Input
Amino acid sequence: MKIKFPDGSIKEYEYGITPYQIAESISKGLAKEILVAKINNQMYDLNRPITNDCEIFLYKFKDKEGKSVYWHSTSHIMAQAVKRLFPNVKVAIGPAIENGFYYDFDTEKPFTDEDLMQIEAEMKKITFEGEPFIRKQVSKQEALDFFKDKNEYKVELIKELAEDEQITFYQSGEFIDLCLGPHLPDANMIKEIKLLHTSGAYWRGNEKNKMLHRIYGISFQSKKELENYLQKLEEAKKRDHRKIGKELGLFATYDQIGAGLVHWLPNGARIRDIIENFWKKEHYKAGYELIYTPHIGKGSLWQTSGHLDFYKESMYPPLNIEGEDYYLKPMNCPFHIAIYNSELHSYRDLPIKYAELGTVYRYELSGVLHGLMRVRGFTQDDAHLICTPEQLQDEIIKLLDFSLYMLKSFGFDKYEFFLSTKPEKSIGKPLDWEKATETLKVALEVRGFQYNIDEGGGAFYGPKIDIYIKDALDRSWQCTTIQFDFNLASRFNMTYIGEDGKEHRPYMVHRALLGSLERFFGMLIEHYAGNFPIWLAAQQVQIIPISEHYISYAKEICNRLSNENIRVKIDTRSEKLGYKIRDAETKKIPYMLIVGEKEKANNTVSVRRHLKGDLGSFCVSDFISIVKKEIENKK
RNA sequence: GCUGAUGUAGCUCAACGGUAGAGCAGCUGAUUUGUAAUCAGCAGGUUGGGGGUUCGAUUCCCUCCAUCAGCUCCA
Output
């Protein structure tokens, strides 16, 4: 048999050789590390004989494929442990996920933390027993017979498989499960296991189905890796915007006012003001007109826009005013279109770009609300771009550039692009959808951006490009969305007068760059862990007089900085220096200026940088220019 | 919305079927300080809201609200 390796080399092997033996023939080290193989695009267990000429890939834990198998096998071990401890529990499905694995169980009483500890201990026992994972091929009938009367979930899964499909069972010890595989050679390869938490999950994600109990966990090959992972979780917890938001007085929600309704506290509001000012300035520069529109509008408006047909479940019930229904706006588009339609437009006026920091209200299920990330009222940095067909492609490319410029300004420089296509529930002609999708695609390709396609993930009114950013912990967040919209233009009968003197239909693109100010702020907080760059910091400088004798000198400095538009305060409390420094550090104020006898005599300040410490003494004008430069560079 | 957990002072947390306690923050006073916590005193709570059981509830039960981990969905 000829076997081709990833480097292109081809070697001859005996019929029936296993991937493990092949790895062994290359090196003992490799054999020790590999977890799974891909044979002609099919994932193979390491001990599954190869019976054809093929191309082979071998995967280790560091590979996505390796991790996935490792975690999937761990989920089987978990199911096995659960079956040992709770024999009446039925197992449903248990895949590997991005970070670890889960398994869903049908059980009367949910798992407690003590149960998790017990299960974890049992899993350790199973890994010590080290039984091999054995792959068994069965017919559909055999499979059905096996699970009949035992487990309706497996029966349901099997029934959906094609008649002639190869069905496989995997057995480890006494535990047999329907499973496509592949798996690790044996349970002993799983070294470190941690069960993380439990939750409810509907069978097949459908709320009409029975609620199952899910256990999440993760496993690694070494204690160190597990510790690193847990540490990363800790780090994420420390950066949680909800925690930092409370500590720094950035934002709050209140029970008595309502869930998901955000209050921007003075420090957070100051940062928002800075973001908004920057945003407005850049939008004017980029040729946008800023507008403001109302928060409610008549039902007929939302009927025309299609929102009442396609978006009603996210809208609040109407307010009845003088016999007329008014709805809180879930989007800004109809208002922007009304402004456009209020006068006649020549092709010479286009493109028209209306931008608005528009506050919208959407009904979100109470269970999904989350800090600033998922709320019920939020402000989109919205804009609608209305242009001729000729301008379209160019405008989309400009938009991509503008988006990235904005994101970069806030310190985000890693992106992922998603192109979302026509969903099932949609309005508009298929041909329009095709054209729109193509325009977005071309824009991405012109800029050379790699992108993923989210099939059926578009909005009901058009295809879209979403940009996800990666933060300091490498987590992805959805930010920019650029959404095509052929439908509203025709629903509201938008037109412009062309060169030919006739009416034409313009194209419309709906976009939000930061997404929503609330979510974006949440991302900023977590990205910077609350240590905002100086241009964003609510307070930039804290002046700390060493004792009351230096307050007047401190005030002098404070005035000079204030006059330069630097956000500065003085700590006049009669506390020791260390106390005031600690306080300023805790508040994450970028610069502390310590002033005492020495500074007063020499007309200087002692500069301490947040998280960095003492930088030595500077004359005030030098300090001002350093700070101004830093603000200018958005560092 | 659903499953499970949680809700005690501004914050972090403790305690209990017999009307709640600490640290930090706050206030007052003393101190006048050199790069991450000076000392002392004071004040601070309808134990998330409502209802029930009980001689007595903050504790047990019900219900509502909110939060957390998920399911589902999205900016």
User: Anything to note?
Assistant: Chain A has a mean pLDDT of 89.
